[in-house]
């Protein structure tokens, strides 16, 4: 089923048994249908509906590719500060929210949960529900728009989303510092947390990638200060291209997101062997895992989400608490959507 | 079972208030136009006491309302007649402060500003800064998704709460969120934040701490018209700047703040406060750009804070504005609707027109960066019909905000006050979905009964 309108989505939901939404297909571990599920392809539900650059807000249909939105924003000197990963591969707004994904530049102003302002979604009974709004500040009604973040489509099919955006810095600079040992890298990272950085990534075993953004006249001095704090660091020429590459997350065979914290990195490093990248001062790691490595994460009780690769249960641990079950029952009483 | 007898089994007499004189202070919150007499007020000191109380209320079908310092401007902590008030001020311990993880784990009765004070030695602070922050509690901030002056850049409470241990209205205890900025799975905490006490009570809250900016640059500009100040805000944004805060006050609010705290503001029809923050070299460069923008914006007087003390004085007047208006009028209603930033001028003109039509003074103080208005409608409750007129005027302002594509509340919440208007902002189907979630969690509508939804 490939609905072209909100009404068609409602119709599809009402007629369906069990549904799985997909659009860009960039996170197949989440969007590939399971036994007995029908696919609802939202890639036809696309387009920016409203964009007022001076308001820092836009509204678009959920199947709109992130890249399309970013091109539009860029023409007005703005961007999505949470830097959605897999944008070049065709990720959509809805898929980004459903998976709850943010990229390296989330370090400065926050992740997808900090920039989503409103949603319209079709619940498990085919009813159209709106929550949040289209202004940057709003405290009216229940925050269903926030609930959608990371929900994997469990509560409804998002059809329209509103986001806050920010101006893109007038100029940027990136420093790379390769250190000998992980401990040294972590110690430097901790020192850098006090700065106003656009990105602070760790590429194991011990390379730091740091990005600054701001006015062109202040940047050279800030780069110097950063080098003094780091005790070195070379300026990367292809600054923009580097970070665009970084959010491609071309890791495998299983691509996994693992929430983390700086002090937990040593423990995670002992478990991970494949290609990987810690973003936002160590708040999350995107890693390529072998299936048996993933099993080990489960056995050790490390929460994570599989984005690519064939696994029956991409989210670990599956939500089971009474609050989740009650909200699920209220919005998807027949269990049409994932996580049922 | 006799409810008071059952409550006595949980609380010693000193922490179970039932006498009239003891109950009076709890009959109202900062929305003083409403009052209700609870059956009892309990003062828990432990999580376990809160959980037992909620379970007891559930068993007996007793409505309950959680309360912090009672600063809600929307009547969010107004008691239910004959119900129980769970007053959480005694649960005011900061349980953990981890400077490496940059988190604070606090009990719900911890006062907002206390978190920043505790984090200060580590160069950290808690960003959400509602004007009530010297008094209001984290539990209440979480329930109402409180805002403040820095929301455009930093977001609201929802963006700074990472985890919570919660007792649902069913009496079940759940852990939502965690300790990190990134998670996996549905953001259930994001739903709980801002649910105005209808889904349960937070027992413990994990907050995100931010590094204190290295440098602030605080500027005050005086304008001949309110529109002029609003226009300046658009210019600042248009220049690509993203200030930490942009605030506007009108003549009436300026006079009130002067009378109350003597902030030393210039006489003006409108004042604009802009504050830049960040790394020193960046702030210095931004300050030069800001100076150019303000110079072209028609400001006839511009002051820049040279010291932290001068900065605090600028803010003191702004933060005191609400309570200061109490000097100009025996009573006032505070609204906090939101309009798209580019419609601010239009909204302010309309508010001025309404003020004249209703014959009531309106003072304006607002977060200009995010379009969050705070019209203060002045009235005298002793004059027959004035409260009703003030409420009607306030209602017109809320409708105006909806009409302009905004919201009925930016940060104070719906509470008692805006129930009717929520139904104008959302469709019956939207509200029904919210109500379904609420009933799943609280079939007896015991938690904060009568708030948010038009039918209570």
UniProtKB/TrEMBL annotation, chain A:
<dbReference type="GO" id="GO:0003824">
    <property type="term" value="F:catalytic activity"/>
</dbReference>
<dbReference type="InterPro" id="IPR016164">
    <property type="entry name" value="FAD-linked_Oxase-like_C"/>
</dbReference>
<dbReference type="InterPro" id="IPR016166">
    <property type="entry name" value="FAD-bd_PCMH"/>
</dbReference>
<dbReference type="GO" id="GO:0071949">
    <property type="term" value="F:FAD binding"/>
</dbReference>
<protein>
    <submittedName>
        <fullName>2-hydroxy-acid oxidase</fullName>
    </submittedName>
</protein>
<dbReference type="InterPro" id="IPR006094">
    <property type="entry name" value="Oxid_FAD_bind_N"/>
</dbReference>
<dbReference type="Pfam" id="PF01565">
    <property type="entry name" value="FAD_binding_4"/>
</dbReference>
<dbReference type="InterPro" id="IPR016169">
    <property type="entry name" value="FAD-bd_PCMH_sub2"/>
</dbReference>
<keyword id="KW-0285">Flavoprotein</keyword>
<dbReference type="InterPro" id="IPR036318">
    <property type="entry name" value="FAD-bd_PCMH-like_sf"/>
</dbReference>
<feature type="domain" description="FAD-binding PCMH-type">
    <location>
        <begin position="1"/>
        <end position="168"/>
    </location>
</feature>
<keyword id="KW-0274">FAD</keyword>
From TrEMBL, chain B:
<dbReference type="InterPro" id="IPR016164">
    <property type="entry name" value="FAD-linked_Oxase-like_C"/>
</dbReference>
<protein>
    <submittedName>
        <fullName>Glycolate oxidase subunit GlcD</fullName>
    </submittedName>
</protein>
<dbReference type="InterPro" id="IPR016171">
    <property type="entry name" value="Vanillyl_alc_oxidase_C-sub2"/>
</dbReference>
<dbReference type="InterPro" id="IPR016166">
    <property type="entry name" value="FAD-bd_PCMH"/>
</dbReference>
<dbReference type="InterPro" id="IPR006094">
    <property type="entry name" value="Oxid_FAD_bind_N"/>
</dbReference>
<dbReference type="InterPro" id="IPR036318">
    <property type="entry name" value="FAD-bd_PCMH-like_sf"/>
</dbReference>
<keyword id="KW-0560">Oxidoreductase</keyword>
<dbReference type="Pfam" id="PF01565">
    <property type="entry name" value="FAD_binding_4"/>
</dbReference>
<feature type="domain" description="FAD-binding PCMH-type">
    <location>
        <begin position="34"/>
        <end position="212"/>
    </location>
</feature>
<keyword id="KW-0285">Flavoprotein</keyword>
<dbReference type="GO" id="GO:0071949">
    <property type="term" value="F:FAD binding"/>
</dbReference>
<dbReference type="Pfam" id="PF02913">
    <property type="entry name" value="FAD-oxidase_C"/>
</dbReference>
<dbReference type="InterPro" id="IPR051914">
    <property type="entry name" value="FAD-linked_OxidoTrans_Type4"/>
</dbReference>
<dbReference type="InterPro" id="IPR004113">
    <property type="entry name" value="FAD-bd_oxidored_4_C"/>
</dbReference>
<dbReference type="InterPro" id="IPR016169">
    <property type="entry name" value="FAD-bd_PCMH_sub2"/>
</dbReference>
<dbReference type="InterPro" id="IPR016167">
    <property type="entry name" value="FAD-bd_PCMH_sub1"/>
</dbReference>
<dbReference type="GO" id="GO:0016491">
    <property type="term" value="F:oxidoreductase activity"/>
</dbReference>
<keyword id="KW-0274">FAD</keyword>
């Amino acid at each position: 089923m490939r609905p072209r309108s909100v009404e068609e989505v409602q119709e599809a939901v009402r007629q369906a048994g069990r549904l799985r939404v997909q659009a860009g297909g960039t996170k197949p571990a989440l969007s590939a249908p399971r036994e007995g599920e029908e696919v609802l392809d939202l890639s036809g539900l696309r387009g920016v509906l409203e964009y007022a650059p001076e308001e820092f807000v836009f509204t678009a249909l959920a199947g709109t590719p992130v890249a399309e939105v970013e091109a539009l924003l860029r023409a007005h000197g703005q961007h999505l500060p949470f830097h959605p990963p897999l944008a070049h591969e065709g990720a959509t707004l809805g898929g980004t929210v459903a998976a709850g994904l943010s990229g390296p530049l989330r370090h400065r102003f926050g992740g997808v949960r900090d920039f989503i302002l409103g949603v319209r979604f079709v619940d498990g009974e085919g009813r159209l529900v709106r929550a949040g709004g289209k202004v940057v500040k709003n405290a009216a009604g229940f925050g269903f728009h926030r609930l959608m973040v990371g929900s994997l489509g469990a509560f409804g099919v998002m059809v329209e989303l509103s986001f806050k955006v920010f101006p893109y810095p007038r100029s940027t600079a990136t420093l790379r510092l390769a250190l000998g040992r992980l401990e040294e890298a972590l110690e430097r990272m901790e020192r850098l947390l006090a700065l106003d950085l656009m990105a602070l990534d760790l590429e194991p075993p011990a390379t730091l990638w740091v990005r600054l953004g701001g006015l062109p006249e202040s940047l050279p001095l800030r780069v110097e200060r950063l080098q003094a704090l780091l005790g070195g660091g070379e300026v990367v020429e292809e600054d923009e291209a580097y970070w665009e590459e970084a959010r491609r997350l071309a890791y495998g065979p299983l691509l996994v997101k693992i929430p983390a914290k700086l002090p937990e990195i040593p423990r995670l490093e002992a478990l991970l062997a494949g290609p990987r990248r810690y973003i936002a001062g160590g708040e999350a790691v995107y890693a390529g895992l072998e299936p048996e490595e993933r099993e080990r994460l489960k056995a050790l009780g490390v929460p994570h989400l599989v984005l690519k690769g064939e696994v029956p249960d991409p989210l670990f641990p599956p939500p089971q608490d009474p609050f989740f079950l009650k909200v699920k029952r209220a919005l998807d009483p027949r269990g049409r959507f994932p996580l049922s | 079972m006799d409810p008071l007898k059952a409550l006595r089994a949980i609380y010693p007499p000193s922490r179970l208030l039932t006498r009239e004189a003891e109950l009076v202070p709890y009959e109202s919150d900062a929305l003083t136009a409403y009052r209700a007499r609870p059956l009892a007020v309990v003062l828990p000191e432990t999580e376990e006491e809160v959980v037992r109380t909620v379970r007891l209320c559930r068993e007996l079908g007793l409505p309950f309302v959680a309360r912090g310092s009672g600063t809600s401007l929307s009547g969010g902590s107004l008691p239910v007649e004959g119900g129980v008030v769970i007053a959480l001020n005694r649960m005011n311990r900061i349980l953990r402060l981890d400077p490496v993880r940059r988190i604070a784990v606090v009990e719900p009765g911890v006062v907002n500003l206390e978190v920043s004070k505790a984090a200060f030695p580590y160069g950290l602070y808690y960003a959400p800064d509602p004007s009530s922050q010297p008094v209001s509690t984290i539990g209440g901030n979480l329930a109402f998704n409180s805002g403040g002056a820095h929301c455009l850049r930093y977001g609201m409470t929802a963006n700074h709460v990472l985890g919570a241990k919660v007792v649902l209205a069913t009496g079940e205890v759940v852990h939502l969120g965690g300790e990190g900025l990134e998670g996996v799975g549905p953001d259930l905490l994001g739903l709980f934040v801002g649910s105005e006490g209808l889904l349960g009570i937070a027992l413990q809250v994990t907050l995100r701490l931010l590094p204190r900016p290295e440098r602030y640059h605080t500027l005050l500009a005086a304008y001949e018209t309110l529109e002029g100040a609003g226009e300046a805000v658009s210019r600042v944004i248009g220049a690509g700047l993203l200030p930490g805060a942009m605030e506007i006050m009108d003549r009436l609010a300026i006079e009130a703040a002067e009378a109350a705290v003597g902030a030393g503001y210039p006489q003006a029809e409108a004042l604009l406060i802009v504050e830049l923050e960040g790394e020193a070299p960046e702030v210095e460069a931004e300050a030069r750009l800001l100076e150019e923008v303000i110079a072209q914006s028609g400001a006839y007087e511009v002051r820049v804070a040279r010291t932290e003390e001068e900065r605090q004085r600028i803010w003191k007047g702004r933060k005191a504005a609400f309570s200061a208006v109490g000097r100009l009028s025996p009573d006032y209603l505070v609204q906090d609707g939101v309009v798209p930033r580019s419609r601010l001028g239009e909204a302010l003109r309309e508010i001025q027109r309404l003020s004249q039509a209703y014959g009531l003074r309106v003072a304006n103080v607002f977060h200009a960066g995010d379009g969050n208005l705070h019209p203060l409608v002045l009235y005298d409750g002793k004059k027959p019909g004035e409260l009703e007129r003030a409420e009607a005027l306030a209602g017109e302002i809320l409708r105006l905000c909806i009409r302009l594509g905004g919201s009925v509340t930016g940060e104070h919440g719906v509470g008692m006050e805006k129930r009717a208007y929520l139904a104008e902002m959302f469709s019956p189907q939207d509200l029904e979905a919210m109500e379904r979630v609420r009933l799943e969690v609280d079939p007896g509508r015991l938690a904060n009964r009568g708030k948010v939804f038009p039918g209570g």
